[in-house]
Write a structure and sequence with these properties.
With 495 residues, the chain is α/β, with parallel strands linked by helices. Helices cover 39% and strands 21% of the residues. The chain folds into 2 domains: 269 residues, Aldehyde Dehydrogenase, Chain A, domain 1, CATH 3.40.605.10; 185 residues, Aldehyde Dehydrogenase, Chain A, domain 2 (3-Layer(aba) Sandwich), CATH 3.40.309.10. Helix 4 packs parallel to helix 5. The longest helix is centred in the N-terminal third of the chain and has 21 residues. The structure holds 2-aminohexanedioic acid.
């Protein structure tokens, strides 16, 4: 019997009002049902928003250091449950255990960072232009935060949003992706165990159209934080614009790794294998393009194809597995679609390019690690996000062309250059139009205490992670205190 899960609304674990459910299955073994979850609708969502609104006043008045103390306990509980919940995450969405442990650790790091932030949340004190007057700024909570998260980082991404939202004094309605509802439920359990007031965190399972859309449109929701596709991000942005909601969007990527002729090739090879095929290529930060200097192109390609051929596909719980399954059938169809597009555009399919069906792999959604060579910058496989184990290789003649080709996409999340030349490195840092640039590192692996996000169509300018996310989840208030005992007119009496 599969485990039965519920929503958490208004301080209680409850089924969906309509009584409907959906199943969540293991992508490495589609016969295995991980859990049965409530298929919620607008009624459930409205109840969740009402509870979050009700809880807001008490929570916003709880001292921020006390909110931080709860975040410390969240981190401590997460540490205790790391192995158990990392395993659950692998069963739920497929990536290998080392990576689900990493995803989970990012959540722990985010909890401890939030805990410390409870004693910071700095404002400024600024001299007044008038005598006997005091000026200051401070950060205030905003209200009810709607949190909509994807399936590829089932723990890290919800924690990036929910922990700072709560730490700043907002209350939360959380709509996780329906591919990863079990991990989301465990996160809410942890928040409650640590002492978050029950009505301050609400969890509503279900689809984007039935739960996500009414969440975005709800007049009592003050801010939305979303990670997902650019297509959905644009809809959220225009819908939320109607009510002037504050919105943070983390959207698509088409990240590239450049390898210059002066690079250490073994190092660059480790980087691209990790960046392109880690998480089965299903990271917003995944390396989807490899841009090779013409002088090392043939040699590096040979090294690459040799390594890709050795990658072992399998269940992410097995020690022997390098690459887990794709998350579901629809994602595998997207990968198949783009592999067809690449062939029709005239790129050379150098390895992979098909569903893997040998032995136990037939039970899940496995796709062979795939490399296209002879890709040119205007091909769709060089510009559009695929979100799977597919790498497009391009050839360039110098550093300028390498950076131009890298920038030739609507996205701008992560990027990488392998080089031993400091001049190339600093040009890359200055000229690459991405929120993140790695020198001699893969495109994946951002750290929780650094700002995370992208330029161009990857987002709308906000950043998660680090100190910057606290700016999104709080609003600046300024106060002037005049203790002169008389009317003082700024800009007039002093000039
Ligand atoms: C994502 O894929 O949306 O930088 C997040 C990384 C991870 C986070 C990825 N720390 O690859």
């Amino acid at each position: 019997m599969a485990d039965k899960y519920q929503n958490f609304i208004n301080g209680e674990w409850v089924d969906a009002a309509g009584g409907e459910t959906f199943e969540n299955r293991n992508p490495a073994n589609w016969d295995e049902v991980v859990g049965v979850f409530p298929k919620s609708g607008e009624e459930d969502l409205n109840a969740a928003v009402a509870a979050a609104r009700e809880a807001y006043d008490e929570w916003r008045l709880t001292p921020a250091p006390e909110r931080g103390n709860i975040m410390k306990r969240v981190g401590d509980i997460m540490v205790q449950r790391k192995e158990e919940l990392s395993r659950l995450m692998t069963r739920e969405m497929g990536k290998v255990l080392a990576e689900t442990r990493g995803d989970y650790q990012e959540g722990i790091d985010t909890a401890y960072y939030a805990s410390g932030e409870g004693r910071r949340l700095f404002g400024h004190t600024v001299p007044s232009e008038l005598p006997n007057k005091f000026n200051m700024s401070m950060r205030m909570p905003i209200g009810v935060a709607g949190i909509i998260t994807p399936w590829n980082f089932p723990m890290a991404i919800p924690t990036w949003k929910i922990f700072p939202a709560l730490l700043c004094g907002n209350t939360v309605v959380f709509k996780p992706a329906s591919d990863v509802p079990a991990t989301a439920t465990k996160l809410v359990e942890i928040l409650l165990d640590a002492g978050i007031p029950p009505k301050a965190i609400n969890l509503v399972h279900g689809s984007g159209s039935k739960v996500g859309t009414p969440l975005i449109k709800h007049p009592d929701v003050d801010l939305i934080s979303f990670t997902g596709s650019s297509e959905v991000g644009k809809i959220i942005s225009s819908e939320s614009g109607k009510d002037l909601k504050r919105v943070s969007l983390e959207l698509g990527g088409k990240n590239a790794q450049i390898v210059m002729d002066d690079a250490k090739l073994d190092l660059a090879l480790d980087g691209v294998i990790w960046g392109a095929f880690g998480t089965t290529g299903q990271r917003c930060t995944a390396t989807s393009r490899l841009i090779l200097h013409e002088k090392i192109h043939d040699e590096f390609l040979e090294m690459l194809l040799d390594r890709v051929a050795k990658l072992r596909l399998g269940d992410g719980l097995l020690e022997s597995t390098d690459v887990g399954p794709v998350v579901n059938e629809s994602q595998i169809k997207t990968v198949e679609y783009y592999v067809n597009v690449g062939q029709q555009e005239g790129a050379k399919l150098a390895i992979g390019g098909e569903v893997a069906k040998d032995g136990d792999l037939a039970k899940g959604w496995f796709y062979k690690p795939t490399v296209f060579t002879r890709v040119t910058p205007e091909m769709r496989i060089a510009k559009e996000e695929i979100f799977g184990p597919v790498l497009s290789v391009l050839k360039v003649k110098d550093v300028k062309e390498a950076i131009d080709v890298l920038n030739n996409t609507e996205y701008g999340l992560s990027s990488s250059m392998y080089t031993q030349d400091i001049n190339n490195a600093f040009r890359a840092i200055r000229d690459i139009q991405c929120g993140i640039t790695y020198i001699n590192g893969a495109t994946i692996g951002a750290e929780a205490h650094m700002p995370f996000g992208g330029m161009k169509n990857t987002g709308n300018g906000h950043r998660e992670g680090g100190w910057t996310v606290y700016e999104f989840f709080s609003e600046v208030k300024v106060a002037y205190v005049d203790f002169s005992g008389k009317l003082q007119r700024a800009q007039i009496d002093n000039y």
